[in-house]
Amino acid sequence: MSWLPLSFGAPMVLWGLLALPVIWWLLRLTPPRPQTEVFPPLRILARVLRREETPQQSPWWLTLLRLLMAALVVMALAEPVFNPREKLPAEGAALALVVDNGWASAADWNKRVATAERLIADAGSNGVPVVIAFTAEKPNAEIGPFDASAALDHLRAAKPRPIPTDRPAVYARVAAALERLPGASVAVLADGLAAKGDEAAFKTLLEKNATRLVWATSDRPSVTGLIGADNQVDGFALTAIRAPGNPAPAQVTAGAFDDKGRRIADATLTFAPGEATATGTMAVPFELRNDFASIALDGEHQAGAVRVLDESSKRRRVGLLSQAEADQAQPLLSPLYYIRRALQPFADLVEPSSADLADAIPQLLDQKPAMIIMADVGTIPAQVKQRLVDWVDKGGTLVRFAGPRLAAAGNDDDLLPVRLRSGERALGGALSWTTPQAVTEFPKNGPFADLSPPSEVTVSRQVLAEPTPDIVERTWATLADGTPLVTGMKKDRGTLVLFHVTPEATWSNLPISGSFVEMLRRIVQLSRNQGAAIANAEATAASLAPYRMIGADGMLTPPSPDARPLVPGAGPLPVTLENPPGLYGSETGVFAHNLLDASSTFAPLVRPQVSLPVTAIPYAFDESENLKGPLVAIALLLMALDTLAVFWMGGLLARRPRRAGTAAATAAAVLVVLGGVFGHADLVRADDSKPGDAQAIEDISKTRIAYVITGEPGVDSISRAGLEGLTRFLIEKTALEPGPPAGVDIAKDELSFFPLIYWPIDATAPMPSQAAIARIDAYMQQGGTVLFDTRDQFSNGIGAGSASPATERLRDILGNLNVPPLEPVPSDHVLTKSFFILPEFPGRFNGSPLWVEASLDASNTENRPVRTGDGVSPIMITANDFAGAWAIDENGDPMLPTVPPDPMQRVYALRAGVNIMMYMLTGNYKSDQVHVPVLLERLGQ
């Protein structure tokens, strides 16, 4: 029974409203008690004959109030619901709920969860079990059947995954579960995108034991994906896709981000009406494009709208050099023609303006290329040779092609990977072949290992390498007779490569083959600082550890526990829970594993054609509002008003004069005035506070950690952010809830309020005065502790016997203090176990010991914990930069990286801070625990 937008869960209770006239009649017959008035002249009243008078009936407003209260109670018992929703079909022997939680469901996941919650709630009201499965979870995930409460727990624990759905496998598991529950309703909450094998999957799910299908999906998939981000000659070319058939035009904005998450470029991509593909270009300079780490579509909070980039997406500047003059009439015979055509799609090519090698080579080196290609360059001038050698040693890649000039020039040991024989080998010569030689399988130790050997390539002429013990290791490509076609070697941090044929199609047809382009592309990858690591990993099929993952919402996150190393190989790699999209590798080199590839398309999911009854529902939040609670609250409020009205009518709330109170108040006012007139201010003065008392009360109301204000803004801001990070960690991990950190001026502020003062030593800060150092000395003697941090762990080791400026400044300060003997924290010291078990105390840096007051009997290791714990060390010294490791920004993210970049080092640094605070606050309590075994033994327990 319902009247929109209001319905009742128990409409029969509304018949109780018919009792309102009876209630009205009863209220009219039971008026309230008459009001009693006190009238002193009893003698007069005794003479007056009066009949007792009572009201004939209750006031109309009181009767109306009570009738309204009764009506509200009746309506509340009828379970009223405002804006009621339609009850979803969840009948049958069970409800099978199949939810897509792949990457395409991330944008409206909350709506899907709300829809599923309504289905489960209706199934619970019908008392049927629920089978719930998600299409992007592990194959062994539990699917039920559950009761409604357990099903809701599984639903709320689920989350969208940045991977495609696997409907065939999941639907088969649900169908197997329904074999024990025939006659079930099946609810499919799909993401709206079709996938391979959907038709067979739906047939498996619905053909046997299902009696009804509840279909929930979007009318048209609204997700947009990014399938291409290519670094081309004039800019970054982007390609986005959406589901076909959308008649409305659309524009999306793509943003490019560097490795620190800063937005550095934008581009707009436009979808024409009905089109499913949009393209755009980020026309930014070459150097800026090489800083791109990821590209994402604005407003698309899902993994398909993000592409991470690795070294293969960064263009390299390649210098081209040849001694042969270009023949404009015959460009195909130019030594650099095929090289230009092969490299132009993925490299920026530069050439010198001078034909003289003495000028051309410096011109190329001045443009800082990653790779230089020399086409048949013979002898390199001596005045520029050393500069070219230095460029290779520092990381450059030099690729040389053979030819008559190189064959006649002899050996150049510094700039060739192998020694060459004089002359060249050709058909018809002394070392000739009877037939041109083909290329065999590429060696496994080279960058071409995963390429197929080009069967159409033959070689009729080449320069030969001298046989040496390491010739096999330096060979990247060989001919059928075993002679090298391409050789290469590492030279310091650079690479030398030699093609034993010419770059034009005279000695071999390799330059006009497709393999030539791929071979040059691999060498360009090797020319990068990190490209070598990834190329070698691909060549040897080594596994790459997860580094940064793309979350379901499109944000880059640390790897999850489910992520496993990725094994790169030929062809597209599948995106799974074990290998989610993201970056794999390490800081020395990463491999981009993206969700969508260039061939990806979106197709809308079509509802299966089945003979079962089908109910289509939209994704929506439950906007119904149960009015039972508000109605009961209003009824209780009316009941309170009724009670007050009865009291008022009975005279209990009548106002009576309070003369004694008034007289007392008047007397107090007179005294105040007289005291002010005659100078007796002591009668009314209650505040005897002094300046600074409020700050002192604030300082001692909560435990606070202090830091010394050095006067250097950068140092002081890091100190405060570091202590704020430690304070937050203490609140999260311990029962201690410190107040906000306090900055103190050691020359003026009171120091005794703080158990620990953190003092970052900075050589550029002013030297404290003798009076200030004396106050620190008194603070330490009275039980306080100062933690000195020179923050120079990586500066002290430069030069034997040298010390950093911060260490020198610390020595000057300590020279004026009464410093006890110090020692590094022993392994059995209370500090190592006051809260966490810690073998060392790292900060932003690692390696410096934490110095504390030496034990009284340092040689007696058995007594050390007791004797050192008898008091707290008044001084601690480190060089590990504790505040730098603890420091957090407004969002709670670390401000400074650790050195080395180990995430656990920051955790250990925070734990070290907790141990120091526990040691400061508990004193010998922790160390006294060593007596417990002895006491128990003496007690015979």
Automatic annotation (TrEMBL):
<feature type="transmembrane region" description="Helical">
    <location>
        <begin position="631"/>
        <end position="653"/>
    </location>
</feature>
<keyword id="KW-0812">Transmembrane</keyword>
<feature type="transmembrane region" description="Helical">
    <location>
        <begin position="6"/>
        <end position="27"/>
    </location>
</feature>
<feature type="domain" description="DUF4159">
    <location>
        <begin position="704"/>
        <end position="921"/>
    </location>
</feature>
<dbReference type="InterPro" id="IPR025297">
    <property type="entry name" value="DUF4159"/>
</dbReference>
<protein>
    <recommendedName>
        <fullName>DUF4159 domain-containing protein</fullName>
    </recommendedName>
</protein>
<dbReference type="InterPro" id="IPR011933">
    <property type="entry name" value="Double_TM_dom"/>
</dbReference>
<keyword id="KW-0472">Membrane</keyword>
<dbReference type="Pfam" id="PF07584">
    <property type="entry name" value="BatA"/>
</dbReference>
<feature type="transmembrane region" description="Helical">
    <location>
        <begin position="660"/>
        <end position="681"/>
    </location>
</feature>
<dbReference type="InterPro" id="IPR024163">
    <property type="entry name" value="Aerotolerance_reg_N"/>
</dbReference>
<dbReference type="InterPro" id="IPR029062">
    <property type="entry name" value="Class_I_gatase-like"/>
</dbReference>
<feature type="domain" description="Aerotolerance regulator N-terminal">
    <location>
        <begin position="6"/>
        <end position="80"/>
    </location>
</feature>
<keyword id="KW-1133">Transmembrane helix</keyword>
<feature type="transmembrane region" description="Helical">
    <location>
        <begin position="60"/>
        <end position="78"/>
    </location>
</feature>
<dbReference type="Pfam" id="PF13709">
    <property type="entry name" value="DUF4159"/>
</dbReference>
